[in-house]
Amino acid sequence: MTAMPETPACELDIPYEGLAPTANADFNRDGFIHLSGVLGPETIARYEPTITSEVIRLNTQHLPLAERDTYGRAFLQVTNLWRENARVKRLVFSRRLAGIAAALLGVHAVRLYHDQALYKEPSGGITPWHADQYYWPLSSDRCVTIWLPLQETPLDMGPLAFARGSHNYSCGRDLPISDESEARLRQAVAEQDFEDVVEPFALGDASFHRGWTFHHAGPNRGTAPRRVMTVIYMDADIRVAEPANDRQAGDRDWMPGAEVGRIPRTPLNPVL
């Protein structure tokens, strides 16, 4: 792991004061929330170059865009950067970000599932409609992902978009991210009259969404990569569930050694 010096006190340790009194209720109703000023420009400027350099160093996708499948064209994906770089760990372990997640979920604390950088290259394709929790062998839906852009993200860069209220809709939960999930969930969103909420992100904005919330993103029509850091949090008291599909069986690797029915108290899943 690359060591990077840090000052002892910074924005990452200071509670976020932008949550409205209705934030938890709004989040439970909509399945997502878009927050302004989660981090300041100076904080993002400190961490973005390190995250970007780690994505370049660790990326294993080397095919030209034209030769990739839909998933491969959606983004470059690098996971658990916190294990590779101490500065990235500082961001991923932020008490400020974890505190927002716990408040939105209505739990006393959250535990880390894993992080992942998602970089949509210029001319990168759509991110198909999907729900993240299809992949997670966890005992409840008290899980949330922060989507933190590392630059201003206008509509032409493909910001993350959400189907409002779709986390309460059980159909379509058997679909991995794919061309099929794009077609079937797009149809379900239209038939169920879920609002497709597509908004630009200012620098410092972040969204939080529940594991079963249907979401997607457009292509990156800009000339620069859409650089995004994500962290998946789970209720600190959640338990490992029996995998419901092969993808969930593979995802147990994010909680090494944790047994079904037990809280995943592993070195990779600290309480934040």
Your description of this structure?
With 272 residues, the chain is α+β, with helices and mostly antiparallel strands. The chain has a single domain (20-254), classed as Jelly Rolls (Sandwich), CATH 2.60.120. 25% of the residues lie in helices and 20% in strands. It is built from 7 helices and 10 strands. It has helices at residues 23-30, 41-58, 70-74, 86-92, 95-105, 179-191, 246-251; strands at 32-35, 76-79, 110-120, 127-130, 143-149, 160-163, 196-197, 206-210, 215-217, 226-235. The strands form 2 sheets. The chain has a 6-stranded antiparallel beta sheet with strand order 1-8-5-10-3-2. The chain is globular, with a radius of gyration of 18 Å.
Strand content: 15-25%
> How would you spell out the order of helices and strands?
HEHHEHHEEEEHEEEEH
The number of domains is 1
Low-confidence stretches at least 5 residues in length (pLDDT < 50)? 2-9
| CATH superfamily grouping | q2cbj1_9rhob like domain
Organism: Actinoallomurus bryophytorum
GO molecular function: 2-oxoglutarate-dependent dioxygenase activity; iron ion binding
Biased composition (Basic and acidic residues): 244-254
Protein name: Ectoine hydroxylase-related dioxygenase (Phytanoyl-CoA dioxygenase family)
Question: Would you summarize the structure shown here?
Answer:
This protein has 272 residues and is α+β, with helices and mostly antiparallel strands. The chain has helices at residues 23-30, 41-58, 70-74, 86-92, 95-105, 179-191, 246-251; strands at residues 32-35, 76-79, 110-120, 127-130, 143-149, 160-163, 196-197, 206-210, 215-217, 226-235.
